[in-house]
Amino acid sequence: MRQFKLFFVFLFFPLIVFADNQGWQILKSTHFLVFYKGASENTLNQLTQKAEDCYNSITEDLGFNRFNFWTWDNRAKIYLFNNQEEYKKETQAADWSAGEAKVASKTIMTFVTAPGFLNNVLAHEMAHIIFNEMVGFDNPAVPLWLQEGVATYQERDISSVKADLAGKLRQGNFLGLDDLSRTEVSGSKDKERVGLFYAESYSLVKYLISEFGKDRFVFFCQNLRDNKNLAAALAKTYSFAVSISSVPFVYTACVLFNCFKTPVSPPCFAFIRHIVIPS
After folding, report:
1. How big is the CA angle at 70 (ends 86 and 232), to the nearest 5 degrees?
2. What are the phi and psi torsion angles at 101 (to 5°)?
3. What are phi and psi of 77, to 5 degrees?
4. Three-state DSSP string of 104-169
5. Euclidean distance between the first and final Cα of the chain, in Å?
6. Would you place residue 177 in the very low, low, confident or very high pLDDT band (cuts 50, 70, 90)?
7. Cβ(170)–Cβ(114) below 8 Å
8. Which end of the chain has fewer surrounding CB within 10 Å, N or C?
9. Is the Cα dihedral 8, 13, 14, 20 positive or negative?
10. What does the pLDDT read at residue 11?
């Protein structure tokens, strides 16, 4: 009976082991290896619980929950540095950075007390990794707006993003698909354009998933992975071919979804309702 109880404890609770590299200890959970040095037990418990919740939420939201990406030897890694100084020294991150991800190696790095990490940054960075694992790492057909739209879609506190985009749309001041695809956010000093980029990217992804369903989005991602062609994947998955009235505002909004640059379908009216009056 005693042996059975010990087995039960190790099976259902995170397991702490010692790593040989640089004094790291490792806390193992179902989908993660958390590397840490001096973090408290409470901090580690909060992090592992939040990480597992985020993983389940992201895979469910995107329709990927039937693909069990990260188990056993394929678990993702989270490095939890003791403080911001150690984190910045290792990652060369900016002062404002609370965390970052190395997508190809499925690694997320942060530090104890990183502002906003558990509420937003963790889900954002994790979504990058999960999405790339689905569409293929280093897939040249995946635009930045789709990458960031999927990641921002997982953030919970985005009310200001939606409100800002609603205001821009009412003024007719937003980016067309070509401009969206050309926008560089890394190192940009144009905060308004960068903010608009993230807001539109979020709304595009939210529209595709909420309007057409998760199964269709999974099919789109699989087409994007297999064919490595964004226009072909969109055309094969979504129908945007029915002409609509050429009202300038409506037409410009529809261009956001139209990779062939022709008037598109009535669902774009739903898109306008969706982001001009965000729910």
Report:
1. 105
2. -125, 145
3. -115, 140
4. CCCEEEEECCCCCHHHHHHHHHHHHHHHHHHHCCCCCCCCHHHHHHHHHHCCCCCHHHHHHHHHHH
5. 54
6. low
7. no
8. N
9. negative
10. 37
Q: Per residue in 48-76, is it b (16+ CB within 10 Å) or e — as a string? A: beebeebbebbbebbbbbeeebbeeeebb
CA dist., res. 144 & res. 146, Å (int): 5
Candidates 147, 266, 139; CA nearest to 204 is 147
Helix segments in 34-112, DSSP class H? 41-62, 84-91
Q: How far apart are CA 245 and CA 136, in angstroms?
A: 38
> Do residues 40 and 29 make contact, with C-beta atoms less than 8 angstroms apart?
no
Residues in the chain: 279
Q: Phi-psi region for residue 15, left (φ > 0), alpha (ψ -120 to 50) or beta? A: beta
Q: Do residues 272 and 162 make contact, with C-beta atoms less than 8 angstroms apart?
A: no
Cβ-count burial 112-130 (b if 16+ within 10 Å, e if not): bebeebbebbbbbbbbbbb
Give yes or no for a contact between 276 and 166, defined as CB atoms under 8 angstroms apart.
yes
Tokens of 173: 């001041």
User: 14: which 2 tokens?
Assistant: 């995170």
Q: What angle do CA 78, 42, 70 make, to 5 degrees?
A: 30
- Expressed in percent and rounded to 5, the helix, strand and coil fractions of the chain are 55, 10, 35
For residue range 14-34, list pLDDT tens digits in order: 444 444 556 899 999 999 999
Return the H-helix or E-strand segment holding 264: none
Answer whether residue 61 shows pLDDT above 50: yes
* pLDDT value for 36: 97
If one counts every other C-beta atom within 10 angstroms of the C-beta of residue 87, the result is 23
